[in-house]
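Lab channel / #folding
Pinned by the channel admin:
"Please post every new chain as: sequence first, then the structure tokens as a reply. Keep commentary short and put observations after the output so the thread stays searchable."

First post following the new format, from NK:
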Amino acid sequence: MQLNDVIYVSDGKIRLADITIEGNIFTHIADREEFPSFEDATGEFGPTLPLVLPGIIDEHIHSREPGMTRKGDLWSETRAAAAGGVTSVMDMPNVVPSTTSIQTWEERMEMGANHAFVNYSFHFGATNTNARLLPELDITRIPSVKLFMGSSTGGMLVDREEALETIFTSSPLPIMAHCEDTSIINANMRALQEKHGDDPAVIYHPQIRSREACIASTSLAIRLATAANAHLHIAHISTAEELDMLAATSQQTPQKPLITAEACIPHLIFSEEDYTLLGTRIKCNPAVKCASDREALRRALSDNRIFTIATDHAPHLLSEKQGGCKTAVSGMPMVQFSLVSMMELVADGVLTLPRMVELMCHNPAHLFEVCGRGFIREGMKADLVMLRPKRWTLTNAQVVSRCGWSPLEGRAFRWEVAETVVNGTPVYRDGQFLTDKNSHAEPLRFRMA
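Reply from TO:
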């Protein structure tokens, strides 16, 4: 496969080049010109040359397989990923049965081999009682230990401090934590129910899944990680106060941060003002909070407090999103439109294009020590996405996820995914899938020399 006269972004640089792919590897990259900024590149060439990025690595998705395949499965949700330029995914353990034993993790790997349309891996779930298994985990095949420090689907809440301490001291892998304090959430729910009935309207969701609940849990996680000298990766951070905590920890370990954070697309593009129009479609955990939190998160994209961007892609049927804070389920499908959403922030000057690539491609590869991916370099796996400038509006008919909806329907975009290549194989082009097989997809490998 030969890509001539393309503008590609990798390693902090924007360059004009010819790229040669043989098999599943970038074999030759002939750089011809480097541009000081994306504006300089587009100013010289306009929209005539393709824009090529490394394939996006989404470290945080919920495919729903097994046990909840009415909402989505590995095939449907990884095809949605491919349509969005995402070439590698890391799937969460709170499925049915939950991925909290070595056997259930092995079974999911078989499902990935059979059904995943892009490169795949599965986080291992911590519980109050399975810490003894953590030293046995294969660190070359598992990205992280997922720890729910707040109530979650799948019954995976870890709420005993002794169990938490054991997890932090015994995990050989990064600990990716969902940080919300369940006791605070439950107290908030009771108080809101007394005022507004058994199922308070969704506008109260940020008061129930409150900033205080996030702050208390994140503070505990940082304390435990610091005491154990463990690598803590805080998932879907949602408040300005948590960002301030990250700034303090980065001063303590500036060279090799042991505490990192992920921002997810919903918290970067929505605010509590959007509940009025979108209602439970944007109900997620942690809750979308106020506009000042969203702006703080956006600023943190460029000052190293945020280390990665992911989606927390969590498809549900619209019938399950009915009701209020108690009955409507939390989560939204996001993986198909994460890249174009972030390109909007690039176009608006929120962050630079090389920084976006760092957050969505390079840093996930660094964080989990993904082998051979996340960059456009000679000798690495040929995962890439090709973008083109085009103004378009998202309609329901474009949604690939099995759940059949997106909270972004009706939103206008300025870039679209023209083509996605996984391991040297073009799999999606101009709105069409190019294959109905998954032989191109590979399991991700980690921490290998």
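NK: The mean pLDDT is 95.
TO: also worth noting, The two ends are 28 Å apart (CA to CA).
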